[in-house]
Amino acid sequence: MKVTEHLEKAKDTIFSFEILPPLKGQNINNIFGAIDQLLEFDPPFVNVTYHREEVVYNKLDNGLLEQKVVKKRPGTVGICAAIQSKYKIDAVPHILCGGFTKEDTENVLIDLNFLSIDNVLALRGDSMKNQTSFVPEPDGHRFASELIAQIKGMNKGVYLDKDLKNKTKTDFCVGGAAYPEKHFEAPNLNTDIQRAKEKVEAGAEYLTTQLFFDNEKFFHFVDQCRKAGITVPIIPGIKPIATKRHLSILPTIFHCDLPDDLIKAVADCKDNKQVRQVGIEWGIEQCKELKKAGVPAIHYYSMGKVDNVEKIAREVF
Predict the structure, then answer these.
(1) Do 15 and 313 form a contact (C-beta atoms < 8 A)?
(2) 149, 203 Cβ separation under 8 angstroms
(3) Is-contact 90 80, C-beta < 8 A?
(4) Which of 11, 52, 204, 213 is placed for a possible disulfide with 176 were both Cys, Cβ 3.0 to 4.6 Å?
(5) Residues linked to residue 238 through DSSP beta bridges, in sequence order
(6) Is 194 helix (H, G, I), strand (E, B) or coil?
(7) What is the pLDDT along the chain (317 residues), one digit of tens a residue?
(8) 0.85 exceeded by the pTM?
């Protein structure tokens, strides 16, 4: 079933979450364990991230450096297939612009279609660590809106090879990303909302937001989106704070602000065990307010650890 169909039939706010593929060389059991832990909250769909390649440099015996491209978390498509087979829960793989040509994208979508995976989240993705800004692959997409347009084109039977005979139309439900505090590359929030609108105009059927800790920023963002003519469901993304280090790394990585009250509460903690409890309590209150406001779903970024998500969900759902 499509994500939009789950949202339409739901009588209350849906619980959903995101998982990371295991590191290369590990197996899927940890993912199954995380899903097992959250099944009681009846998630109708689970997102599976895709991690693009990284460049590493190995020092050779002659002192020179050898550049090597590696993928540290492969397996998104296979994990999605395993989840749908084992749990009968819809899997939503992330599809990126970064690292993909248009042909690469088409081939991944063909594989997903073969496996009856009919939901995708289309993202531009981050630049590689050795790049100062995002650089698309030759004959790849620069913007998520272009990627969405290709996916929706396949839904109409449009393939790159125009000479294909008896082409089968796909039927993907496509989601996009949104940023309540704006994407860090956008000059201001209004410009970023226009980028979100371009994704919707290209075919995005719902938007899931970057994580945030201040609900007022989310509510303001949704209000501005509606004024801009964006009518698709907007799903808030939540990540519980869990360590003191998060005070510095979350704003750096995700470009989000933390409220003063949350910063003070974390700073007053003696250890990370107390920080984790503060994060759970903040997450409970944040999600209760979101649910009361009637959001279509609350999407949790678990980062591979679901104990705190479970504690929040038990109080909210």
Answers:
(1) yes
(2) yes
(3) no
(4) 204
(5) 300
(6) helix
(7) 999 999 999 999 999 999 998 888 788 898 999 999 999 999 999 999 997 666 556 777 777 666 666 666 678 999 999 999 999 999 999 999 998 999 999 999 999 999 999 999 999 988 777 677 888 899 999 999 999 999 999 999 999 998 888 889 999 999 999 999 999 999 999 999 999 999 999 999 999 999 999 999 999 999 999 999 999 999 999 999 999 999 999 999 999 999 999 999 999 999 999 999 999 999 999 999 999 999 999 999 987 789 999 999 999 99
(8) yes
Contact 17/38 with Cβ under 8 angstroms? yes
- According to DSSP, the β-strands at 297-301 and 14-19 are parallel
Give Cα 186 to chain centroid, integer Å.
19
> Phi and psi of 150, rounded to 5°?
-65, -45
Nearest CA to 39 among 2, 88, 77? 88
Tokens at residue 203, please? 């075919």
Q: Name the nearest CA neighbour of 278 among 261, 253, 301.
A: 261
Q: Which tokens is 188 given? A: 């201001």
| Tokens matching residue 260 | 């003063």
The two structure tokens encoding residue 74: 């492969």
- Residue 182 near residue 189 (C-beta atoms within 8 A): yes
Q: Domains in the chain and their CATH numbers?
A: 3-54+87-316 (3.20.20.220)
DSSP 98: T
Strands 65-70 and 54-59: antiparallel
SS3 of residue 176 by DSSP:
strand
